[in-house]
Amino acid sequence: MDLLQQARAEIDTVDAEMAALFERRMRAVADVVRYKAETGKPVFDAAREAAVLDKNTARITDEALRPYYRAFLSDAMSISRAYQRARLGRDTAAYQGVPGAWSHIALRRLFPFARETACTTWGEVFDAVQNGDAQFGVLPFENSNAGDVSTVLDLLYTHPDIIIARMCDLPIRQDLLGVPGATLETVRTVISHPQALAQSSVFVQQHGFKTSTWGNTADAARHVAELNDPSVAAIASAETAGLYGLQILSAGINADGDNTTRFIVIERAAAAPAMTGEGQRLALLFTARHKPGQLAAALDQIGARGFNMECIKSRPLPHVPFEYYFYVQIVCPAGSTGAGCQTLLDTLTSVCSTLRLLGAFTLDSTEK
Ligand SMILES: O=C(O)C(=O)C[C@]1(C(=O)O)C=C[C@@H](O)C=C1
After folding, report:
1. What pLDDT does residue 368 have?
2. Which CATH number, 3.30.420.240, 3.40.190.10, 3.40.50.2300, 3.90.470.10, labels domain 92-172+259-271?
3. Ligand 1 centre from 77 Cα, in Å?
4. How far is the CA of 76 from the centre of ligand 1 (A)?
5. What is the three-class DSSP state of 33?
6. If we measure between CA atoms, which residue out of 103, 106, 86 comes closest to residue 95?
């Protein structure tokens, strides 16, 4: 037996043991499901997950392996959550757009096992979550080039029962998609959303393609599939190609390679978001009194306690002319705890006119 065969034999033995342990863990999770069905408790428990990760990572003797084990266990709990949600019937996630839209792609990466529901507007996504038709809503929050999605921020402000449960960054990569048999040589016309056409304009000009604008990238892909004409191609995502049976004629044709959209997952809050400190981000919504230095006083408290402010956004208060609210996102410092976060919030409460903890979450990756 050579080294590879030996190693694989060992991996097979370990996998067999882990399969049995996986089933055993999931049987315990099934009991958790019964408990949560009876009590209505939320599936996600940030404090418990942080404790499980810390306790078990400390058991790994090889220090170099610790971050990998942490990720492994984190995945195991993510699978456990997906299983619990499916068993509890709490696994519906809403998004705005059509299948293949960027929000839909973000949803699939975040909730690969969810039941999906498509909405026409961002407001409808909020309604679906608010009235319990969906447990989660996936919405764009900011784009690295185009900036804030202010309407979504305002919807957060006007829905006090809704929290940000998760946040993730999705790199936007545009591909040229054609029907099977199409090649770069057969294509004459390219259709897509104006923004995708603009992002890919260098490539389009180089090839001398004519362009035609479309409502959104996913619909453009669907149209190309329906036309079944090798002279017409769409600019959309690789995922969209899979959905509509198209093939990728050229990958990554957008010139702005670092274009990234930040998505949020919203949830109806049963309780205030659980703060655990280190590794988390806190999202705060507040208003400040009209007195000199009030905003600075709030920001000073954040800095003085070692929290790093990642961003601040200011928006007009709905229905109150020329008054503003602030959205602030802060990173909890290393070594900080839930109690430390609470102390900061208590201090801010005395400095701000109104203060709402909109979310306490980790920044997820959507990379596969
Ligand atoms: O302990 C719980 O409450 C669980 O639901 C189990 C579990 C896990 O798989 O370990 C899963 C989800 C929670 O976020 C925390 C832990």
Report:
1. 43
2. 3.40.190.10
3. 6
4. 10
5. helix
6. 103
